[in-house]
């Protein structure tokens, strides 16, 4: 059992685990039992939790990552890529430091409009929302809020992106700066159709194998 509340990403130590009497009829498949695994405590120490555990919750191997496996790869959904973007260390590019792992965000690209800047002899800046409803995997080195405290603003935010979105955001970092806009919990998972009606479409030109094509959100 978990001897205390364990956050996602916790490296398990002896003090985090304990044996507890459990009704035999309530033992589910995947539970670690002293009968089947006498050295269960020793074997489990050093593993990393893939998700949070409540105090007294049975420890299951399916929710752990062994030391030889990559933690970020283990929590990344199938078909997605983890991409780190640079954020403003003052917090202005990450909702003032209130963006936490597992929040959903929109990614905004800000860049200099060269044509209008030359035409008006001034510095014209343009902002575009290039990705919407994106899950934040980590902020800096923190992968989960701990003890109810806000994350310390980091220099990078790691996002869960599809391969196409990964291409878009990689190019966007090269030709402008990126900001994260925190979404309301009520807006998370909003249908793409509603998103498209709410804001004009934007795109970047991605060159792959010498062929240029427009890449939308």
UniProtKB/TrEMBL annotation:
Matching InterPro entries: Pilus_assmbl_Flp-typ_CpaB (IPR017592), RcpC_dom (IPR031571), SAF (IPR013974)
The SAF domain extends over 2-65
Look up the signal peptide feature and give its range.
none
* Pfam families assigned to the protein according to its UniProt record, in alphabetical order: RcpC, SAF
NCBIfam families per UniProt: pilus_cpaB (TIGR03177)
| Protein name in the entry | SAF domain-containing protein
- Origin species, per record, is Methylobacterium trifolii
């Amino acid at each position: 059992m978990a001897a205390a509340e364990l956050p996602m990403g916790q490296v398990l130590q002896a003090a985090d685990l304990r044996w507890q009497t459990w009704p035999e009829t309530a033992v589910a498949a995947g539970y670690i039992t002293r009968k089947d695994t006498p050295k269960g405590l020793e074997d489990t120490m050093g593993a990393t939790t893939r998700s949070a555990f409540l105090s007294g919750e049975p420890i299951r191997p399916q929710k752990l990552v062994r030391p030889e496996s990559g933690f970020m790869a283990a929590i990344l959904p199938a078909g997605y890529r983890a991409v780190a973007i640079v954020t403003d260390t003052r917090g202005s590019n990450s909702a003032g430091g209130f963006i936490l792992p597992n929040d959903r965000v929109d990614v905004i690209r800000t860049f200099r409009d060269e044509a209008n800047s030359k035409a008006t002899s001034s510095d014209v800046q343009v902002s575009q929302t290039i990705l919407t409803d994106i899950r934040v995997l980590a902020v800096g080195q923190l992968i989960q809020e701990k003890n109810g405290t806000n994350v310390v603003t980091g220099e990078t935010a790691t996002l869960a992106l599809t391969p196409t979105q990964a291409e878009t955001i990689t190019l966007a970092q090269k030709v402008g700066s990126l900001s994260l806009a925190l979404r309301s919990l009520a807006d998370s998972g909003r249908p793409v159709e509603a998103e498209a009606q709410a804001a004009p479409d934007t795109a970047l030109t991605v060159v792959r194998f010498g062929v240029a094509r427009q890449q939308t959100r």
